[in-house]
Amino acid sequence: MQRMNLKNKKNTHKDRLRDYLRYSFVKDARVITCTCVTAGQELFKRFKFPYVLIDEAVQATEPLTLVPLIYSCRKLILVGDHKQLGPTILNKRAANAGLHVSLFERLIRLGVVPYLLTVQYRMHPVLCEWVSNTFYDGALVSAQYTHGAHVRYSAGTTAWFNLPMPTFFYVSRGKEELFVSGTSYLNKAEAQQCLAIIRHLKMNGVRETDVGIITPYEGQRVLLSRLTACEVANVDAFQGREKAFIIISLVRSNNINDIGFVSDRRRMCVALTRAKHGLFIVGNPGTFCKNKMWKELIAYYQGKGVLVEGEVEELRRCEVLGVTHFDFGNFVREVYHEQ
């Protein structure tokens, strides 16, 4: 009992010392950086924070956003992009009740006009073009230095694949399969096409750590993770991040144009904006053509001459799809005619 009391006293002394040091650090600092959850700790209740800036505010639930505002906040700055993914809410009842709407998005819905940051510093200007026109009303422009910074990589990428742009839509005719879990999908043919792109990039000096693979389905993520050392993750995991080169494996390939949650506009925006130097989409245009957004993207790629098929070393333009109209029956007939 005596030993226990001594131990408790010792721990209490350490706790007090730790709390004093933390208080001293916060008291002397002009800017405090923490998460919204951490802002609710006892330590901060002794201070006033008149100015609060919350980054990635669209990904925070509204109650979570309110936590750092309780310390006499007079001015609040929310930074985020409501065109991309919001908070992850696993409970359907909570989501349906409105918890999936961030404070950022709710204020915009109420008529608050956000200040738009129009200069992007990540992507090659070509990669920004369709995204800017489709999601941001053409308002996004590329910083001048991105033009120079991307010259070597973009020139290399277009030369490596003998294409006019550092991006392409690689037509896949493999079929989707149900994953062992019964709740996800995989596509082995697409996986092999992704690996072919990776091998080609590596052959031209690109490191595996500079390549990321985004796929919306866990089954495909598991399959690709077994086949390559490149990072493979879903769209949600890649939000807020970037890679020099991004490969997107769409997975879904069927005759009923069922693309599941790949139709989500926000997920599409996130996936298309992670690459700095090169973006490569692998998928079946025939399956995605009935979705308005994906049809427009496929038409864009065909119009630019980068809807392609064949071996990676000898990619050729795919002339199966019409830029303004897509006839699935004709697509099937042409595919079988080629075979």
Through-space gap between termini: 83 Å
Name of the CATH class of the largest domain: Alpha Beta
Strand/helix succession: HEHEHHEHEHHEEEHEHEHEHEHHEEH
The domain tally reads: 2
What gross morphology would you assign?
A: elongated
Main sheet specs: 7 strands, mixed
Strand order of the largest sheet: 9-8-10-11-5-12-13
Alpha carbon gyration radius: 25 Å
Give the helix proportion (percent range): 40-55%
Tell me the number of strands. 13
Number of DSSP helical runs: 14
GO biological process, one term: nuclear-transcribed mRNA catabolic process, nonsense-mediated decay
Family: Belongs to the DNA2/NAM7 helicase family.
EC number: 3.6.4.13
Keywords: ATP-binding, Helicase, Hydrolase, Nucleotide-binding
What characteristics describe this protein?
339 residues, alpha/beta, Rossmann fold, seven-stranded mixed β-sheet, two-stranded parallel sheet, 41% helix
Report what the structure shows.
By secondary structure, this protein is an alpha/beta fold. It has 2 domains: 2-109, P-loop containing nucleotide triphosphate hydrolases (Rossmann fold, 3-Layer(aba) Sandwich); 124-338, P-loop containing nucleotide triphosphate hydrolases (Rossmann fold, 3-Layer(aba) Sandwich), CATH 3.40.50. The protein is 41% helix and 14% strand. It is built from 14 helices and 13 strands. The protein has helices spanning 2-28, 62-66, 92-99, 103-109, 125-135, 144-149, 151-161, 188-203, 218-227, 235-238, 265-272, 285-288, 292-303, 328-338; strands at residues 51-54, 75-78, 119-120, 141-142, 167-171, 177-178, 185-186, 211-214, 231-233, 243-249, 275-283, 307-309, 316-317. The strands form 4 sheets. A 7-stranded mixed sheet has the order 9-8-10-11-5-12-13. The chain has a two-stranded parallel sheet with strand order 1-2. The longest helix has 27 residues, at 2-28. The radius of gyration is 25 Å and the shape is elongated. It starts with a helix and ends with a helix. Residues 322-339 have low confidence and may be disordered.
